[in-house]
Design goal:
heterodimer, A: 116 residues, mainly beta, six-stranded mixed β-sheet, four-stranded antiparallel β-sheet, B: 115 residues, 11 strands, globular
Chain lengths: 116, 115
């Protein structure tokens, strides 16, 4: 069963528009971590944020913000006033303590294209 | 500090050839992961090591795939014989298990093309 679902395959916006990426996860653990990674066209995976299951505070970092809601098992990511450099594939990931080791399960990714 | 270092960055080989991908984790990290990324299957965990010991290799697709970690600073992923469907980007990642957050630090990936 898919543990992390990113329903949006592709999103295209014009520069300065806001864009929200959805992420829904599934786990039976009470302790887990959620992540967002960015993969720009160059191919590397860049860590953006980590959230633990006990901290439901929303977070803002510059133009990026994250909304974590345990009630709906969602961890959504918003880019405000998007820029061309934001064009990338964004992955949501879940880390569960299944065996004492945390392993990342990734969603399928959402490709964001920001047009000038 | 150097990040996770992978080599080669690009590999083109012919079907049936042996392929060896290499990874040097971040110094001090004690968990190492091999992921494969394809268009069809996304990012899949192949195998991971803790303190150089393979813990879970359930993601390794077939016996043609093998991975080793002879010491804390080096790991290899070998495919023998390679097939066109093995074409993918292979990522190595490392983490510090004591942090227990699952945050992984990824290498730049090795892009494999099997003709």
């Amino acid at each position: 069963a898919q543990k992390v679902t990113q329903a949006q395959t592709e999103i295209s916006v014009v520069e300065k528009e806001d864009v929200t990426l959805d992420c829904v996860y599934e786990t039976r653990d009470t302790t887990y971590y959620l992540f967002w990674y960015k993969q720009p066209p160059s191919g590397e995976l860049v860590f953006l944020i980590r959230r633990n299951s006990f901290d439901e505070q929303n977070e803002i970092s510059g133009r990026y913000s994250w909304n974590f809601q345990k009630s709906t098992s969602s961890f959504n990511f918003t880019i405000t006033a998007s820029q061309v450099v934001d064009s990338a594939v964004y992955f949501c990931a879940l880390s569960e303590d299944l065996t004492g080791d945390y392993k990342l399960s990734f969603g399928a990714g959402t490709t964001v294209t920001v047009r000038a | 500090d150097a990040g996770v270092i992978q080599s080669p960055r690009h590999e083109v080989t012919e079907m049936g050839q042996e392929v060896t991908l290499r990874c040097k984790p971040i110094s001090g990290h004690n968990s190492l992961f091999w992921y494969r990324q394809t268009m069809m299957r996304g990012l899949e965990l192949l195998i991971y090591f803790n303190n150089n010991v393979p813990i879970d290799d359930s993601g390794m697709p077939e016996d043609r795939f093998s991975a080793k970690m002879p010491n804390a600073s080096f790991s290899t992923l070998k495919i023998q014989p390679s097939e066109p469907r093995d074409s993918a980007v292979y990522f190595c990642a490392s983490s510090l298990r004591q942090s227990n957050t699952g945050e992984l630090f990824f290498g730049e990936g090795s892009r494999l093309t099997v003709l």
